[in-house]
Write a structure and sequence with these properties.
alpha+beta; 5 strands
Length: about 110
């Protein structure tokens, strides 16, 4: 009898957590693609830039802060990385992508 009760509790908890997992997965997909489902609510402005970047090994968090200050972006830095010769910098409502070889890039403002 005790074993049957524990098995039922385990089964119902499993269903509950699977339901939570599905709900969080769906809400994550919806949040990531909300600008595609309602594009009239979002505006994206772009600005082309040309900067002189140092070598990739000299790009640090301090350099990123100085660069964004010179570009008149005063948001809090979320993350930055260099991948396939592209420097990507992300803020709350702004993203910057710069080619590390040429220094040409683009700023995306999300409103």
């Amino acid at each position: 009898m005790k074993r049957l009760i524990l098995r039922n509790i385990h089964l119902h908890l499993g269903y509950f957590f699977v339901g939570l997992l599905i709900a969080f997965a769906l809400s994550g997909i919806i949040m990531n693609h909300r600008n595609q489902w309602h594009p009239e609510k979002f505006e994206i402005l772009t600005e082309d830039i040309q900067v002189q970047l140092p070598n990739e090994d000299k790009i640090s968090k301090y350099y990123i802060k100085e660069l964004t200050r010179s570009l008149q972006i005063f948001e809090t830095l979320k993350r930055y990385n260099i991948y396939k010769e592209k420097l990507k910098i992300q803020f709350e409502n702004t993203e910057i992508e710069i080619d590390t070889k040429t220094g040409k890039g683009e700023i995306l403002f999300f409103y």
